[in-house]
Design goal:
heterodimer, A: mainly alpha, B: Arc Repressor Mutant, subunit A, 6 helices, 3 strands
Chain lengths: 189, 127
């Protein structure tokens, strides 16, 4: 193998290894803790308006705020790692995570219009969990485990709809915080 | 312990003198000397993976590099002896864990290696 072919091969190998391993821990642990912390006040505010329009508005506002915080956290962790989150594996994670979330957003409209607001917490957590499992296939093992826990919480909320609001507090708040601390401590931030 | 320290000092000195020689070679338009410690594929993989992570466990590296316990262990120890990474062993409950971090010398060695590779490509294209 000539010098420059070997050099090009080495550079390609270094780039691919960096991309693979950056995606491995691209999930921001402390960012997840911050996102989780916002779910508790949202659940408390929404509790007295269970499954009414105000309840839906509060949780949509919470989702938008959490998504914004997650984007900032992912971006800042990617910058610290020295690789853009849009590099190959980061894009793969986003593409696997986004479709179930889009499905959850779209299903919200007809279900709420049909006065099936009590089904929403279960449906949201099931689809969020599915997205986390799919995206987490390219990340550390803790991520798909967290997705499975979300799906379990979603199942509980579907079986016991009256607990939906507090199940969301436990899942979107508790699970994000517990797994966020775990990821931050084991995978650096 | 003393042997490891001596190996680290020697690797640090070797690495900085190799970087100096490479600067001279670059100026003279000659192919730079490569750092043999990280030229090997698994070791280059370990250094590259740690360059974008604060730390990685033994199992993370094994999964990332698709290698065996024995192979990874041997190469990681060589890098550790060279002062390019640090190794921390600890228990979580009853389960033993091994965690690796890149040192400043390791990061410098990777940067120098990348510069050398770019230089090799440039010189060969000119020739």
């Amino acid at each position: 193998m000539s010098h420059d072919v070997r050099a090009l091969d080495d550079l390609r190998f270094i780039r691919q290894t960096m991309e693979r391993s950056a995606a491995f821990t691209a999930v921001p642990g402390w960012g997840m803790v911050a996102v989780g912390a916002t779910a508790f006040p949202a659940a408390w505010l929404a509790a007295s308006h269970a499954f009414e329009l105000r309840w839906l508005q509060i949780w949509i506002a919470e989702a938008v705020m959490a998504a914004g915080m997650a984007v900032v956290a992912v971006q800042s962790k990617a910058v610290r790692s020295g690789l853009p989150w849009t590099s190959g594996p980061g894009r793969k994670v986003a593409l696997h995570f986004a479709p179930p979330l889009a499905a959850a957003a779209l299903l919200t409209i007809p279900l709420f219009r049909a006065n099936l607001g009590s089904v929403l917490p279960g449906m949201w957590m099931l689809l969020y969990g599915a997205g986390v499992i799919a995206g987490g296939a390219f990340s550390v093992p803790a991520v798909p485990v967290m997705g499975t826990c979300f799906m379990a919480a979603g199942t509980i909320a579907l079986l016991l709809p009256s607990l939906g609001n507090w199940t969301m507090a436990a899942a979107f708040g508790g699970l994000h915080i517990v797994f966020g601390v775990w990821i931050a401590r084991r995978y650096g931030g | 312990m003393a042997r490891t320290h001596a190996a680290r000092v020697s690797a640090h000195q070797g690495s900085s003198s190799s970087a100096g020689k490479n600067r001279e070679r670059r100026i003279a338009g000659e192919i730079p000397e490569l750092d043999r410690l990280i030229h090997e594929r698994i070791r280059l993989g370990i250094i590259s993976a740690l360059a974008v992570n604060d730390s990685l466990s033994f199992n993370d590296l094994k999964r990332l590099l698709h290698t065996t316990d024995g192979n990874l262990s041997v190469h990681a120890r060589k890098l550790e002896e060279g002062g390019y990474l640090t190794c921390r062993k600890f228990f979580e409950g009853r389960i033993p864990h091994t965690e690796y971090r890149l040192t400043a010398a390791g990061r410098r060695a990777l940067e120098e290696y990348l510069r050398s590779m770019e230089e090799v490509i440039r010189i060969n294209r000119q020739a």
